[in-house]
Amino acid sequence: MLCSNCGNELANPAAKFCNKCGKAVASQDVGAHEAVTGRELGSKDQTKKSQGNMKANLLRIAVLAIVFATIGAYNSFRQHPKEASPVSNLASPIASSAVLPTPAHNFIIDAALYDRIHIGDTLSQVESVTSPPLKQSDEGHRGTVCAWGGPLPKPVLDVWLKNDHVVSKQAIFSFEDIRLDEGRQIAEPTAKYNFDLYRKVKKGMSLQQVEAIMKGKSTSMDSFSGPDSPEYYWKNKDGLSELDVNLEKGHVYFKSAVNLR
């Protein structure tokens, strides 16, 4: 602060007399100095107050951010539960092998297999020479049919059961169709057409060769599959058993045994 009389800078801004000229310092100069000093102090207080408010606001924002982050994480956990790590999902080889299904028996659907299944056998006995059936369904009065193999043209074995006992069986394999139904076996062991004759018929034979085996012409025939694919039937007198042969361009390509013994 300067003296208004001599222009000297006062050593003590609050002094009433100049330390150089000795004259009284104007009261307005002191008041001005006090006003300036008051404004400076007020400005400092305001700055401190603003800084305090800013810190308080930052603290509030930080707390709210933590709260919202916690709520968001909780909701995410409820919607997407924590998944097990890939390592925890890997079962040991011992545990895996314990639950694997038993492998099916190695078997071929052919006449030999068909012969091993008998009317009256239980399903367990049939499974002992085959495997658990691939398909099983109820066919009403015919019973429950169990199927192996297929689909056609792959070999197929069908077995019908009533009260867990075989009542009918059918095998379609290679170029053969063998079927045996309950109560439809040939009553006379000396029936003209039997399973031994059926086995003698081979794929590729001519009609004349088949007739030589059967010792006679067929009892009936049809051409439902076309003129080049006739089907010939050798039927026994019981009307329930027969041997059928399908020809393709003059040669056997399929044969069927229905209730033959």
Characterization of the model:
- The protein folds into 2 domains: 1-100; 111-258, Beta-lactamase Inhibitory Protein, Chain:B, domain 1 (2-Layer Sandwich).
- It has 7 helices and 9 strands; from the N terminus they run αααααβββββααββββ.
- The chain has helices spanning 27-79, 86-89, 93-99, 111-116, 123-129, 195-200, 207-214, and strands spanning 135-138, 144-149, 156-162, 165-173, 176-181, 220-222, 231-235, 242-248, 251-258.
- The protein has a 9-stranded mixed sheet with strand order 1-2-3-4-5-9-8-7-6, with no helix packed on it.
- Strand 2 and strand 3 (156-162) form a beta hairpin.
- The longest helix has 53 residues, at 27-79.
- It starts with 26 loop residues before the first helix and ends with a strand.
